[in-house]
Amino acid sequence: MHGRVKVKSTAQQEEEKRKGREKKLKVYLTVRDAIFSKRSNGELDEEALQFTQQLLCSNPDFATLWNYRREILLHLETVKEEDEIQKLYEAELFFIETCLKMNPKSYGSWHHRGWVSSRLPRPDWTRELSLCDRCLSLDDRNFHCWDYRRLVVKASGVPVDQELQFTDRLIGSNFSNYSSWHYRSTLLPLLHPEPGSEPASPCRKQNNTHTSPTASPQTHSHRVCEEQLLKEYELVQNAFFTDPNDQSAWFYYRWLLGRAEREELISCVYVSREGERVAVAFSKPVNALTEGLMLVLDGQQQQRVEWRSAHPRFRHSPVWLCELPPGSVSDINNEHNLTVHWMEKHTHRDCALYTGRPESWCRDSATDQELFRSELSVEKTSVLQSELQSCTQLLELEPQNKWCLLTIVLLMRALDPLGHEKETLAHFQTLKEVDPMRSSYYSDLCSKFMIENTILKMEYAEVRVFSLSDKNLSTLCHLDQLLLVTHINLSSNQLVRFPPQFSMLQCLEVLEADDNAIGNLEGLYHLPKLEEVSLKNNQISKLSDLEPLASCPRLTRLDLRGNPVTKTANIEAELAQLLPSVTDLLL
Amino acid sequence: MAADNLPSEFDVVIVGTLTESVIAAACSRVGQRVLHLDRNYYAGNWASFTLNGLLSWIEEYKAQQEKSPDDQTDVEQEWREKIEEGEEVLTLNSVDSTISNLEVFTYAEEPEEEEEVKATSVGSVLIDSLAAEAKENSSSSTEAQNSSGPDDTTPDKDDDEEHQHQEPENEQTPETQEEPENEPQPEPVPEVKKKITYAKLIKEGRRFNIDLVSKLLYSRGLLVDLLIKSNVSRYAEFKNLSRILTCRNGKIEQVPCSRADVFGSKQLSMVEKRMLMKFLTFCLDFEQHPEEFQFSQKPFWDYLRSRSLTENLQHFVFSSIAMVDQETLTEEGLRATQHFLRCLGRYGNTPFLFPLYGLGEIPQCFCMCAVFGGIYCLRHSVQCLVVDKESGKAVIDTHGQRISCSHLVVEDGYIRDEQRTRSVNISLVTVPPLDSSSPAVRMVELSSSSMTCMPGTLVHLTCSSVGSAREDLEPVISKLFYVPSSPGEEPAPCEEEQKPVTLWIMFFNMRDSSGLDPSCYTLPTNVHVCTGPDASLGNDYSITLQAESVFRQLLPDEEFCPPAPNPEDIIYDGDGTQTEGAAFQEAGDALGTSAAGEEEEEEPQENDQSEESSEPAASSESAAQ
Question: For residue A285, which of A316, B74, B446, B463 is within the disulfide window of CB 3.0 to 4.6 Å?
Fold first, then answer.
């Protein structure tokens, strides 16, 4: 048709492109080889800068070239005047900007920019900050830029409140941004720290004194004063009411509701006269061998005691054991005073073993506040109560929302774990239905809460019997809290193993775990008092699975009915050999 | 091109503006010989005028009103001679009949001297109003922003976000009415604040680009898609609307429509936020949830009330997001909401784009496609159509030249009324939204950063007409603005000081023929009529759909507006030398970024262009300077 503009055909264009590419490739390779040969000749001149610049312009991820550039720049620093260096580095910044336009997420370019900024004799931080803001306005989740921005903020000392406003702005434009929320969580404790004189917990104060204000929030008390917290609750609620499926807001909410790490202390010292043994429980797993643990018995420092963790697999464990020198406490007519010092933390715990007593202990009871609220804060109950109300309101609108359900569960735990037990279980059921991909996670979490509740009930009843049967337990936890338990009943659950932590149950005498799916007894290891084990209808299939039991010296009764292992040929003889102490064997 | 020596044969002769320019571009792009003519000024009813241009347009309008139809008969005799035997003549309108009820009011002070005398008192009044604004700002930015006219003295603020748009309610019916209104503001001189005088308005007149039609582009609308697809967007710059307001119970409120708005909104309770987001999310893919709307035969309004939405939210959705009226059925309402939402986020937090320098830019952009061989001729129109039996075969232009063509595309305004078998009532404008019988008024406020006015604000109000433009719109104006009773009068200190002061108002009614069925014209089959601007806010119907459908009738087998080829791919006669790229610099592509290398191979300036064309709004910042 006349008048129509003639356009090259696709094939023609392709051919041209191909030729163009070939040509470029040739040039590229030539330059690259030239650069490498210059570098191996140790030439650190401006020509090399120019060559590398040409290649990096098109491929800013060529890390070797950035390294070479740094070598050259460092060399030039030694031979040039300061003004020249300033100019050189400024040109470098300008050049990096072009590279960032090419690939805004180039590791090499951002790293080099950080390096150049730190070398620049007279850095212009304002300019760098505005560069970051520009980049973040194009992609507010560019974590390279966030990283670099932190560097700039640190170097230029931007006031914290200004940074908080910056996060306000970013969250305002798009609240689905972990980086901004997280940044907030690092700024708030600096800007609105929780008043230090919190009478509720003297040890937390001690915790504060150990932290410098520059430490990251993970390591110091990352709590925020209540007034600010209330504002943050409102802000984050705006986010999750707007979009309850956005997890970043929920995670921030969890952080807000969270509380400082538990103080580090010795939570329990147990001594057994008969076993001449001491067990020490800590508030968190430690390595007693490096923490300066000292045992003083009747005023005498015990130099030669050897600390071992409850199970050899653990280098860090919340429970550590040691044997006392033979005869030191065995006379039942003597009273003994025992002190365990934790030198590193300047803390200790005493324990008196009175006349006539076969054992003794001294401990903090696992009251609900102390232990199982540790995931949520100890803010005023009224605050948590109103948070629970908000979430319940949201749940009415979004009955299927997993984040909301989970948060409600956590708030209920913090408020009244036993009182809300029934609702909690119902919510877990819903959670598993709406989020089947994570049903195992919810099962484990639910198990954890059920164990906590049972521990609380046990504490209130002041007994040493732990009974949690038929509760769909899928995992065992908080076993360090069961150090003193003598009888445990875990029947009719969904357990598959006794984890190594189970060996922390140093006082356990009777274990019932019928009707589970247990095939692994690893944790039944060196339980000095264990006498009866009932494992009916489990999945123990090999003789070797039973080997850990051989380390329990007092085991006399073992019920293995309904396990595949009972079908093994010659099982009785094998077991008699493996477990000579067992007199009452049921197969 | 000089009009005197036009070629006398074309494939398509096109008379008219916006829709027509798209058709012209599409036809010439595929090799048709196109003659594109337009009346005395560029862009017809789609025009953007400087203030001075607008004043001449008003003069012209008035002159036309006085001219009697008989004047034309003399001229007619001249071209009658050019008609061959067996041919008939259909006369086309040479004057625009679509505008009526034009009225102009000036409130800015007229004489220079008087300003001098009054300078002191003016200053004090302005200071009062500044204080008021500061207060206002803290409590509600919406209100303060709205009263930006005289109060807004910070130029930086102007630059970025003055752009505001408001729809107290909406209209749908076929008539449009417009009335631009200016309230420029004092110069930001710290001490002596000068009031804006009429003389100053005139002096600064070229800084205005006042649209006759107030429209916005839906950012995922067909027109935007067409601009991108055809690469025409490279000729214009766009700005994303900064916010959407509504007027409710006499208060101006921001409409929370995007996720970020809902999150940040202070007027919504937490629960309302959830309700609104839930409803909007549902609207996004409402087709997937037929169980949620049983009401498809009932009005959208009733449907909204059946949903769990508070009154507040119903209002937002109904009048500011869906922008429909009481009669709209549920499905259409949902579709409108969906369209609005889909447009969000493409270029920013509101769904609308506005072309910098006014809407008149759009037809101009398409006319740039004249590069493909079309001929564009301004101040040159067609007097009549020469008809041979049932099909037209030529036109005779206003210079008396006979031009033959196989197709004629003509804007509705050129068709003489008597050629119309049926006509929608040509009426106009607004009534205050308070009165239930009155149409909703749509208001678009433009700041100087839109490049359509001097520092200050230009406000367009549009509604379906009931009476004359003035009757319809004046109540709304007096509600939202301070209208001095005499030129230069200052607002009473206490009551009116927070309202922007009006300086100049123009009312007029414009005919909306978009509701007409093309078959209602008794015209030869190769004459295609395009309607003028319609009353809806977007441009989709009037431009894209119509242009494409006319194009399909003309050239059923050709592609509609294919992208323009890259200059390097065009083969010129004797083309042999290829320009070499700066190959050295780009050599890395081949090795380094294999995937990205493909696109990055273009010449640098080529890259720029393609980037721009895919993002019409991208460079608004630079243009706003």
Answer: A316
